[in-house]
Amino acid sequence: MIVANEKYVNNDDITSFSVLVCIWKVLSNTCYHKNSVDIIGKDQIISIVSSGSYTINAPHLTVGYDISILQKCVLKAMGNLIANYSDDNNDTTIQLDDLRGPFREKKIFQQCIRALRNDNATTASNNSNNSWKNDVDLWSHTSRFFYHCWARNNNFLSRKVDFKLIIPFLIHYIKKDPSDAREWYAFDLLHAASDVIGKDTMMKNSRGLLTVLGAIADCDNDDKDANDAAYELLEYLFKR
């Protein structure tokens, strides 16, 4: 399927686009089952994630098609793959250390953030509302993928540089839809980021973080869990 993806991803027609969507839907369903992931080889895992990170940013696919449909399929597939692969399995022949290097060399997180940004967004407008695509489903699939890259000690997401890269997106996500963000681990990722980067550094350098958390914690809405998540993160950040 990855070979087929490489064949169609550089074509600019609706048939190729539809084929790509089908490819990643099949991969998503396959990777949803842990037994299937357990038999995938190291090189295949790297190929899936590498091909996925390229596909979500294929430049010619941004004209005339709803690229977000394909992006969601790809991110869901990669999320399923990492979620199931990260489970401890003494029988697996795949070593995490063999994957971390290539995973980082492909700049996977950078490619994911790029896919979330509007084409005219600039680095200076990281936290402005118009710098991010307004698609909650796309945000949730991305946040879930990031979470599984961090969770269960697999350390795909563990470096300061990677957490600093994704923090502006997470702040925007919790600001725009705190309930969905709580469900799909955005608050957990911000908590993890503070441990890696350092609480003081994160509070000083993450523009809007404290304001957004305060507004959510103080908001009288139907999602008490989101309010509590914001309050708990604020409490943790100021705890010494």
The largest pleated sheet is described as: none
Q: Count the domains.
A: 2
Percent of residues in helical segments? 55-70%
Would you tell me the overall average pLDDT?
87
Alpha plus pi helix count:
14
Strand content: under 5%
Q: For the terminal residues, how far apart are their CA atoms?
A: 50 Å
Descriptive account of the structure:
By secondary structure, the protein is mostly helical. It folds into 2 domains: 1-106; 119-240, no CATH class. Helices cover 68% and strands 0% of the residues. The protein contains 14 helices and no strands. Helix 4 (42-55) packs parallel to helix 7 (108-116), helix 7 packs parallel to helix 9 (160-176) and helix 13 (209-217) packs across helix 14 (224-238). The longest helix has 19 residues, at 67-85. 37% of the residues are buried.
Could you give a quick summary of the protein structure above?
This protein is an all-alpha fold and 240 residues long. The chain has helices at residues 2-8, 14-31, 34-38, 42-55, 67-85, 96-105, 108-116, 136-150, 160-176, 178-183, 186-197, 199-205, 209-217, 224-238. Helix 1 (2-8) packs antiparallel against helix 2 (14-31), helix 4 (42-55) packs parallel to helix 7 (108-116) and helix 5 (67-85) runs parallel beside helix 8.
Task: Provide key terms for this protein.
single chain; 240 residues; mainly alpha; 2 domains; 14 helices; 0% strand
Q: What layout of secondary structure does this protein have?
A:
Blueprint: H1 2-8, H2 14-31, H3 34-38, H4 42-55, H5 67-85, H6 96-105, H7 108-116, H8 136-150, H9 160-176, H10 178-183, H11 186-197, H12 199-205, H13 209-217, H14 224-238
Helix pairs in contact: 1-2, 2-5, 4-5, 4-6, 4-7, 5-8, 7-9, 8-11, 9-11, 11-12, 11-14, 13-14
